[in-house]
Amino acid sequence: MRFSDEKWRLNQKLVTVSELWHSHFISGITSSISHITQIQLPLRSETPRPLIPARNYTSNGFLRVSCNGGLNQMRAAICDMVTVARLLNLTLVVPELDKTSFWADPSNFEDIFNVKHFIDSLRDEVRIVKRVPKKFSRKEGYSTLEMPPVSWSNEIYYLEQILPLFENHTVLHFNRTDTRVANNGLSLDLQKLRCRVNYQALKFNPQIENLGHKLIQILQENGPFVALHLRFEMDMLAFSGCTQGCTDNEAEELKRMRYAFPWWREKEIVSEERRSQGLCPLTPEEAALVLRALGFDNETQIYIAAGDIYNGEHRLAQLRASFPRIVKKETLLTRDDLQQIQKHSSQMAALDFMVSVASNTFIPTYDGNMAKLVEGHRRYSGFKKTILLDRRKLVELIDMHQNRTLAWNEFADAVRQYHESRIVRPTRRRVILDKPKEEDYFYANPHECLCEERYCHDLLGPPNSGEV
Fold it and tell me: Which residue ranges run through the membrane (predicted)?
């Protein structure tokens, strides 16, 4: 394969982009917000559907990707990498999952996701294989180029900077995949493909699906429930430097952990400053006050979507006192149910993801990757009730209440008032020119996938530009 001819490059760009516009998947994506329904749990005895016709194209090479981060960071990256492979007419190798992060989860793709469904459901868009054929190995004289693509990149970058690399390399390995595709400024067809991968192709494997369904059924049998994403695990506190309510010994333990991981760059952090800026997850005690102020009573069933809470039941005591009907996956499922996945953080997180998407109300106490992807999933599922907490304002109100300068009624009224506008509704994703890290994340609000362009103005309001 040679790509030196400039005329060929231009033609390749035009062919690649024009093919995308005529993709089969566009007609299958939900066309209007009025047609969006809640995601239905599939029947376990689902009849296999006939395979969709495979797309016929000449592959320009193989794309290997090693996803980094936790489950939801990797999930978004997989969606992005399928899109890149489609744009560049590449053959995608089933993604490799991170095994070296803090969680040290040895799970492979097939341990979490349904790999057959992933390959088959996208065969009309991208050729996906489980491994690079041996004939393209180093032993046969082929070299693999390893590199991380540039963050927040658009189509032009991939067409002009990445595609020509296949002139000399049959296999390209992206060794980092987090946030490597732009939130905004992409073709509508690319944005819709990202949604198709996220909401249709990435199904959890049967074991996780069955456990997730079992959890949801148990919860629903006991009435409506709130999924509280309580991001108060040890790694989160150590990484963020947030030690509100911790003892001196606990704060020192968290600091030692932060120094133990060299890729956590920020070391010296003043917890009080971070908290006042709204950059700390709410503590369980703070979450209890906020839930009460929002009008949830002690009969509310609350599912804690989280890993191990730092200092466990001791830190949950006040939350449990206010809301006795607190449950977790570990209390609803049997030891036998969890035996095979309990030591695999990403597989456990997949259960929390399923329950959070299915909950009557979802409330994240920190806007991390899971919170953002669940928010987007719930938008796509018909705008299920999601409350995005204003942590900066909340800690100010909480401190005033605890200092006895704000009575309970005034505190509760203020919390409700500030959050009337923070219940997720149809809206356009915010764009901040030249500041992609600060603008709204695509997977939190994939508005292009929620309506046809001719309806978007009425539903979402006019497009924004510049800094909002």
Answer: none
